[in-house]
Amino acid sequence: MTDSIDREALAAARESARPRYEEFSSSGLKLDITRGKPCTAQLDLAEDLLVALKPGDHSTEAEGDLRNYGGAAKGVLALREMFSPLVDVPADQLVARDNSSLSLMHFCVASSFFRALPGGEKPWAGEEVVFLAPAPGYDRHFSVCEELGVQLRTVAMTPEGPDMDEVERLVAEDARIKGIWCVPKYSNPTGITFSDEVVRRLAEMPTAAPDFRIYWDNAYAIHHVRAQHDRLASILDACAKAGNEDRAFVFASTSKVTFAGGGVSFFGSSQANVAWFLARDSMRSIGPDKVNQLRHVRFFGDTAGVEAHMEKHREILEPKFDAVATALDADLTPLGIASWSDPNGGYFVSLDVVPGTARRIVQLAKDAGVALTPAGATFPGGDDPEDRNIRIAPSYPTTEELDTALQVLTTCVILAAGEALLDA
Ligand code: PMP
């Protein structure tokens, strides 16, 4: 990127950016493109969830009456069958729970400290535990580890997934490394989908820790932005084929499908891991909200119903991602001062700016009334070693708000690049 910077063009762009920035700063903007939240129109798509159950509709053939305790240890079968092909986990190995897959991930990490995992000799309590953190990645994965006393070791992300040479080397030699965080499809924030080769190598690689786990957070499995969808190989199949059946924990949820707090989540894994999970989980809750699970079954009808629903999300999201691509391209491509992703799905555009300027850009944007995800948030400890990555979340604002926020953003990118490259 920096090789292709046209310094004269940048100097001229900076001159016109200065008054623009002053104008934005004095116009009292209050815009926010920080978190990947669905917009109101997306939430409206699921409005009928509120009336999907009528009085008397509270039973299934497999489980009977769902209003009481008990009867569906893994969650409602019809829901597990509906989502099984979407998350690539056999229904029998898929557990449905209440909203928040993140809470399931937190629970799995925490429980591993107190109860040995299948394949493990003992629980992790008292041990030094390390997870690999491909970065840029999802900040809340990193916070779970920080909260629970798990150290993070950063590994680079490539367009195909984590840098597998590095991952293989580290896990082979260090038994303290017990896990790796993965958002394998439409990754948060880079939008990439792991290649078949990466999936295979993750499944096959020898690990020094016998209880090593891949935290396969397939949060964006069905969240397409473009008509062209990415395809992800099945991690459970790859692990089983490699003789490492118990290696992967799969997570997913409907947080950005229906309602964030009123949705359902999923945990999928080998039979042994599912038994481990259920044994731990039964100590904290007698059972999930099966009525809400049935509500989701009624609302979607079948797997194709879920896919049709996600197509409506896609139609709302695509123009917003187009707006980001168009604005960045128009303002920044001629200057060669940034590069960015244009993903087929997920919720983010990952913007790489001139090294050393990401923090400055976020501060300039904030001073002009536009909130961006804090620079560095996509790296463990909030520390981007090159200070160059910014995560853009275009879903929530209206198109007009997004257009303005993008103008402010590109103005700030130009100003900060000018400071770093012309004033230095
Ligand atoms: N994983 C990833 C990668 C996410 O981006 C998000 C939401 N931003 C979550 C998990 C949170 O999911 P849930 O609402 O199911 O806890």
TrEMBL record:
Q: Which CDD domains match?
A: AAT_like
**What Gene3D superfamilies does UniProt report for this protein, alphabetically?**
Aspartate Aminotransferase, domain 1 (3.90.1150.10), Type I PLP-dependent aspartate aminotransferase-like (Major domain) (3.40.640.10)
Q: Cell division: is it a keyword of this entry? A: no
- Tell me the GO molecular function terms: L-aspartate:2-oxoglutarate aminotransferase activity
Tell me the organism's taxonomic lineage: Bacteria, Bacillati, Actinomycetota, Actinomycetes, Micrococcales
Q: Which SUPFAM superfamilies match?
A: PLP-dependent transferases (SSF53383)
Please tell me whether the keyword Transferase is annotated for this protein.
Answer: yes
The protein's superkingdom reads Bacteria
Protein name per the record: Aspartate aminotransferase AspT
The UniProt keyword set, sorted, is: Aminotransferase, Transferase
